[in-house]
Amino acid sequence: MKNLFTSLSLLVLITSCKVVAQSDPSKFNNPIIKDQYTGDPAALVYKDKVYLYAGHDEAPNDFNFYKMNEWVVYSSSDMKKWESHPVPLKVTDFKWAKSDAWASQVIEKNGKFYWYVTVEHGTIPGKSIGVAVSDSPTGPFKDALGKALITNDMTKYSDISWDDIDPTVYIDTDGQAYLFWGNTACHYAKLKENMTEIDGEIHHIKLPNFTEAPWIHKHKDWYYLSYAYEFPEKIAYAMSKSINGPWEFKGILNELAGNSNTNHQSIIDFKGQSYFIYHNGASIPHGGSFRRSVCVDKLYYNKDGTMKRVVMTSEGIQ
Ligand code: FUB
């Protein structure tokens, strides 16, 4: 009997050791940003580094909406270790804006870095898009225009006051830059050479269950328009052979995060690997829809150019 108990105890010990080893939190690289809550990741590959821009989620634990006053930047050479930099841009850097450092994206052109951001306008009701500029990817950035680039009264595809949010910017192989943005309606327009003025008309793209967070990227000879789908959000995408469309809907790329009603993706290729960067509410303690954290997982393509569904992991990039 004593031997049976000894054997059983040994078995329990071995089993529990295995469980501890499998869930060792020191092996969990997601979320990648652990020093503060961050949402709406937008990654820029520049030279041999990735720069990760995000909004700072400052909402206290008992506050159930966004509290966001500044954007932050981190950088990495290997997607595993992330270096934090001083805060490069705040809502107060835009004198015409009053609040809400919502989703944004930075792009480089001719050695200058342009940061397109969502903010609440101070005098024109609704959300708007501003642009800041810097000589360095880590800033400091300053307002490039002294006024909004896009205001709510410039778009008529949706009646809501928050349809002009979530800019994503892309420079095509011929040098032409495009700005895509939107909530409930997906808008896009060309940007002039100076990157601070819209060139021509604002167009509208019809996409199934488009909520927000458009992201444009190219991989091989396909253009991809991924976006937040339904609400709470999954990420879906469409593909095209041209940045001007037509876009063919390809389905779901990432499932619900579950612990956050938004998921906001950024997609890049870096040193031969594709990455899906997103936020969820998994951070302990007090993570959630308004206290989000940025995560990264690998992204894979099928032979026909479609993307394989993302597997969100705790381990992240090992
Ligand atoms: O962070 C505020 C808003 O939540 C963003 O602009 C949306 O994309 C959603 O993530």
The number of helical segments is 1
Counting DSSP E segments of at least 2 residues, the number of strands comes to: 20
CATH class, named Mainly Beta
How many discrete structural domains?
1
Main β-sheet, in a few words? 5 strands, antiparallel
- Range of helix content: under 10%
Order of helices and strands: HEEEEEEEEEEEEEEEEEEEE
Strand content: 35-45%
From the 3D structure, determine the CATH topology. Tachylectin-2, Chain A
Query: Which ligands occur here?
Result: beta-L-arabinofuranose
Write the CATH architecture name.
5 Propeller
Low-confidence stretches: 1-21
What do we call the CATH homologous superfamily? Glycosyl hydrolase domain, family 43
Tell me, rounded to a whole number, the average pLDDT: 93
Q: Mind explaining what this structure looks like?
A:
The protein is mainly beta. The chain has one domain (41-308): Tachylectin-2, Chain A (5 Propeller). It contains 1 helix and 20 strands. It has one helix spanning 2-22; strands spanning 38-46, 49-56, 70-76, 83-84, 89-90, 97-109, 112-121, 127-134, 142-143, 168-171, 177-181, 186-191, 198-205, 210-219, 222-229, 234-240, 248-254, 266-270, 273-280, 293-299. Strands 1, 2, 3, 4 and 5 form a 5-stranded antiparallel beta sheet that branches. The chain has a 4-stranded antiparallel beta sheet with strand order 6-7-8-9, with no helix packed on it. The protein has a 4-stranded antiparallel beta sheet with strand order 10-11-12-13, with no helix packed on it. The longest helix has 21 residues, at 2-22. It is globular, with a radius of gyration of 21 Å. Beta-L-arabinofuranose binds at residues 39-40, 55, 66, 102-103, 118, 165-166, 212-213, 262, 264. Residues 1-21 form the signal peptide. Pfam families: Glyco_hydro_43. The record marks 166 as: Important for catalytic activity, responsible for pKa modulation of the active site Glu and correct orientation of both the proton donor and substrate. Keywords: Carbohydrate metabolism, Glycosidase, Hydrolase, Polysaccharide degradation, Signal, Xylan degradation. InterPro entries: Glyco_hydro_43, Glyco_hydro_beta-prop_sf, Glycosyl_Hydrlase_43_Enz.
